[in-house]
Amino acid sequence: xxxxxxxxxxxxxxxxxxxxxxxxxxxxxxxxxxxxxxxxxxxxxxxxxxxxxxxxxxxxxxxxxxxxxxxxxxxxxxxxxxxxxxxxxxxxxxxxxxxxxxxxxxxxxxxxxxxxxxxxxxxxxxxxxxxxxxxxxxxxxx
Length: 142
Description:
CATH topology: Jelly Rolls
Radius of gyration: 15 Å
Helix content: under 10%
């Protein structure tokens, strides 16, 4: 499945006497190569901008509320941005956010208990060769 712009896909849940199961059966994760968790002890920090020409990311809220902004990058070497997408991920109403290749992303954890799990379709070594970083104030007024 190929995505051309960021999209948030609802995560479903089922509750019974044993607890709650959350799931997103619409997504094929066969291309996932690694994952990591981003959390904060302070809240409101901004982690921006990290862009990739070939890497795509899938972001799932684990706890709290997180703002994620994705910016289409029209020129990676002399940063020029295109369309901007803003998402609020809430672990109480989870969505799986897909950020396709060709975009920069920035994350701002909104609550002190916020954490997100990020899945990537590249290995760490592959990602290091596809990593473009820009100043947090370049594309968006946080």
